[in-house]
Amino acid sequence: MCLPTQRNKGRVFNPSALSPRAVFLKICISGQAQTQTRRRFDLLFLPDCPPLGLESLRVDDSQIQASSYQRTGLGPHRGRLNIQSGIEDGDLYDGAWCAEYKDQHQWLEVDAMHLTLFTGVILQGRNSIWSWDWVLTYKVQLSNDSVTWTACMNGTKEAIFEGNQNPETPVLGLLPVPTVARFIRINPQTWYSNGTICLRAEILGCHVDGRLQYRQEPGSKDALDFRQHNYKEMRKLMKSVTEECPDITRIYTIGKSYMGLKLYVMEISDNPGKHELGEPEFRYVAGMHGNEALGRELVLNLMQYLCREYKKGNQRIVRLVTETRIHLLPSMNPDGYEEAYKKGSELAGWADGRHSFEGIDLNHNFPDLNNIMWDAQETAADKSKVSNHYIPIPEYYTQEDAMVAPETRAVISWMQDIPFVLSANLHGGELVVTYPFDCTRDWAPQEDTPTADDAFFRWLATVYASTNLAMSNPHRRLCHYEDFQAYNNIINGGAWHTVPGMNDFSYMHTNCFEVTVELSCDKFPHVSELPIEWENNKESLLVYMEQVHRGIKGVIRDKLTKQGIVNAVIKVEDHDHDIRSATDGDYWRLLNPGEYKVVVWAEGYFPSVRHCRVGMEPHPTICDFTLTKTPIQRLKEIRAKGGKIPQDLQLRLRALRFRKLRASTKAINQRRMSERVKQARKARSCASRMAKNITDFITEFNFISSKMFLIFRMKYVQESFPCL
What we know:
GO terms for molecular function: metallocarboxypeptidase activity; zinc ion binding. The active site is at 518 (proton donor/acceptor). It is found in: Secreted. Helix content is 28%, strand content 23%. It is an alpha+beta fold. It folds into three domains: 15-207, Jelly Rolls (Sandwich), CATH 2.60.120.260; 240-549, Zn peptidases (Aminopeptidase, 3-Layer(aba) Sandwich); 552-629, Carboxypeptidase-like, regulatory domain (Immunoglobulin-like, Sandwich), CATH 2.60.40.1120. Helix 8 packs antiparallel against helix 11 (530-546) and helix 12 packs across helix 13 (647-720).
């Protein structure tokens, strides 16, 4: 009697094969088969038992044993589903458990720590770019004491389970009869002929108490919709949130995926649909990689939580909603998610659904603006003249035949339409927060590549990582092969691996600061783990949003009209990254506490300078600026409108012409005086050289004359007195 193979439905036995009054459960206890009559633990409604947590690390290394292993890097602790190996084989972080011997007596054992109703095993081969190893068939054994073992039977024979045909695709093996025990072993029988015994695994089972009653996993105190939502269910949930909180929510779309699925965004604000002067714009983006599903569910949970807490009058949430315009995109890659969702949380593997339907990695699909800026800086005579912000998208990228996904184009257009200040994109597969630059100079594989705002980016990353319960746990195990705890669970993107992604594009093309949050070792957690993951991330999601209110903000206005000035440039001294004002003239500059000299200028205006102080308080410092138009700009505008030049402007232009005339006259006089001084110096120098030459000539002449006189005199004496 076998269970159905669909992973996302409640597991049931065939009702026609069982008595309606009693259900019989075969249980292996200490190797003895027993039969018990059950009424309360009704297998007609057997729950969809979750994974024990080898992949999500809920199962500790000490709970996993093996018959043998080749070396530490291939030990039993590496036999976890979807674990990834380092680049080099032979280190401490290889991608599977591998037995030392190639025989049928090898096994991998897991201690569930409690009585557990085991329902299945998921198997995977070795993750390696150098070796191909996987198990073709295996047996399953169970025990209550790890001494006496009983094989799972298929009728009168020991059950043989089908394993893998390649290293990466997970394969589910359902036990013919769900069995209660504490320990479970996987016993490989055959393996890939050119390889050895290597495997990664996950165990499916429900914890039960002494009376064999199903015990629920620990959850969350927040009554949210904790389940995996496909496209239709996601849309339905978002609609229910808007119906529950119509005054603070709005759903809109920013485009469609390749397969025509809409990219829905939930806006949460006290005035949805409108940008309010001075109110910063914030966004969360999830589901860029379709199989990294946790971010999608956290964003959906966040919508519900903000709505309900606002209605309850939670002052923290009320303040956040009234002072911030929040945008939540739960699924940037809905096509990829649907592919992963159909396979299920444990069977989607490490890569299924990661890319868009066209096979594009959306995070690698943004234009590379880093090297455009760096190349310009290297060739420029004056680096200060090179733009350090609002770098335009290259022309090749905007062409219709460019290899750009419609999802990427939609998000870029969204970024350009709304003056976002702060963002985070949510990923999965690790526990770390990365910050720009993600792309290294000269495409080095790994190199710390800081931005001009490195200190603030480190603060942003630390805020999320330090408040995340999983990341901040000092006793947690590393996910795969990198120990990010050594860096306080934050790292510069370029120091991890180089990729010109969304973070860098957001920073260099818009005003928005953005980081990447790797939420969990498990890319696609089982539904039973979602309440725990919500509790792990709830405070992090909230406190990160609150950082949008750090630094300085204000409005840049025209002195005469009092209207806001769009595209005014805001420069902070000693920070080689400028920002620009929004359509209404408002701006937000994220900064750490300190004293800053801020210079603001706009085309056709005189620049303005202020000193702004940022305190430790979690709210921004107001720094407004008023700019005065240059007379020439005013004249251009008046002439463009065909109007009459005002008297005051005529006087100012006349004064400006006189000032220029005086300046030019003064400059001419200064040049003339300089020329005269040069000529005088030249004349004096010439006279000095001439006088020196004459003096030298006279001295030489006198010397020669005196010498000639002596010679002549000696000759005369010799001729006159020959006998001397």
